[in-house]
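Quick review question:
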């Protein structure tokens, strides 16, 4: 079910006229008709092909001159069904009435439209971006989860149904599914992409992220979505970054499986052979406390988000979402204030440690292991949680294969507001890991 979908290559061909947009959409829709009945990444839509062809025709009329065509001219983008998109209902993976969530289109969606994109459609999400899964399957193996909560978006990109899709991350819902599905997932610094127009899960850690098949494609999109993005000329990459890796016997890495840790050590060895300096750092010794603080804050904010409609529609909520909201109702305003303050303390601690140890990026396993079998669980986000809580920019790149031939990813985390530097540094690292990954795939 895996299929190539180059964003930059397709965008260049569409803008220049080398590729006909209507023919491209027709071919893409034919592929979707073949693969999505098995993957279930997209929410059903009557005559998707006709609507997309009409959108493309309107873009052709608007931009007749190739020189004036915007960067995402006629590129179809998948949008997680927690974003409000004009012309589409928003249900956030729930059984509640869509009218409850009506409102103005998300500004990040508008930004994509202004860049020339067309909307492929809404993608499947877990219920209210929490842990109750949808129907989406992992394109690498349909018997395994794609991860959550941005399940449909990640599966759509991995299966080549679109070269770009929006997701969100409150715990690990961009980094984890991207790793499970063998693609690139990027979560910028907290607040770098506006979160208006969302059916939100937890404001204090609500991040907009997105998925592509390469770091180059990810970097191509970043200036279009991230506030105050600095161009390549402002990012100085004079030498290889110094990488910080958590201690192998620390409590943070103890959350990962033996298989994931072994793969991580192989990735570090590969990067070290390529000239990268790696320093093992004692970090996150209080990870259990951090995990608890983060989750209590998320539950509390979920309860407050859902307060206007929870009593009336309680019977329509699924069990795990229901339990999270009920626990959130037990969190006092004072406790919530303390948990929110913990975000800044953790960020300061991590960035101080980076400066003291002389490291530029953190590298860790992106997940505790490969995608779990079955669709009842979306997998653990614990490898992502502390970096999300601190609001730091993170990206995962394909980095290995598990024994069952499912993907494993490497998570790279930078300092706050150093997103530009993070992407510049990670690109060559991804190329090094890709060469090893190709070898493993050839051997599989």
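Suggested answer, residue by residue:
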């Amino acid at each position: 079910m895996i299929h190539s979908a180059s964003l930059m290559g397709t965008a260049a061909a569409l803008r220049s006229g080398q590729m006909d947009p209507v023919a491209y959409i027709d071919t893409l829709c034919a592929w979707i008709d073949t693969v999505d009945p098995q993957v279930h990444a997209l929410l059903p839509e009557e005559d998707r092909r006709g609507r997309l062809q009409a959108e493309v025709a309107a873009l052709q009329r608007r931009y007749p001159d190739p020189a004036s065509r915007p960067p995402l001219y006629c590129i179809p983008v998948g949008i997680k069904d927690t974003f409000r998109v004009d012309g589409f209902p928003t249900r956030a993976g729930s059984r509640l009435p869509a009218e409850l969530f009506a409102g103005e289109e998300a500004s990040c969606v508008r930004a994509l439209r202004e860049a020339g994109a067309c909307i492929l459609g809404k993608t499947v999400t877990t219920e209210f971006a929490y842990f109750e899964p949808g129907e989406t399957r992992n394109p690498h193996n349909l018997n395994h989860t794609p991860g959550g909560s941005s399940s449909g978006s990640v599966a759509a990109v991995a299966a080549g149904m679109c070269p770009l899709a929006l997701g969100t991350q409150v715990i690990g819902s961009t980094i984890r599914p991207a790793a499970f599905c063998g693609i690139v997932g990027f979560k910028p610094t907290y607040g770098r992409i506006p979160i208006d127009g969302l059916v939100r899960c937890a404001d204090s850690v609500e991040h907009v992220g997105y998925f592509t098949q390469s770091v180059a494609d990810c970097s191509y999109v970043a200036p279009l979505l991230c506030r105050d993005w600095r161009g390549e000329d402002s990012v100085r990459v004079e030498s290889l970054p110094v990488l910080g890796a958590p201690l192998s016997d620390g409590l943070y890495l103890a959350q990962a499986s033996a298989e994931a840790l072994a793969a991580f050590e192989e990735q570090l060895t590969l990067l070290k052979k390529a000239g990268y300096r790696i320093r093992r750092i004692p970090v996150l010794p209080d990870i259990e406390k951090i995990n608890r603080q983060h989750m209590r804050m998320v539950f509390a904010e979920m309860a407050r988000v859902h307060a206007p409609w929870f009593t009336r529609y309680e019977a329509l909520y699924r069990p795990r979402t229901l339990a999270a909201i009920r626990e959130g109702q037990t969190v006092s305003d004072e406790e919530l204030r303390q948990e929110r303050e913990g975000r800044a303390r953790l960020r300061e601690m991590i960035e101080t440690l980076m400066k003291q140890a002389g490291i530029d990026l953190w590298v860790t396993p992106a997940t505790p292991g490969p995608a779990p079998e079955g669709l009842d669980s979306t997998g653990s986000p614990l490898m992502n949680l502390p970096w999300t809580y601190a609001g730091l920019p993170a990206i995962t790149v394909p980095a290995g294969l598990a024994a069952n031939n499912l993907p494993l990813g490497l998570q790279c985390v930078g300092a706050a507001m150093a997103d530009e530097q993070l992407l510049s540094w990670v690109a060559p690292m991804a190329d090094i890991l890709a060469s090893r990954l190709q070898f493993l795939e050839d051997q599989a």
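Why it works: The chain has 13 helices and ten strands. Residues 303 and 325 are 5 Å apart (CA to CA).
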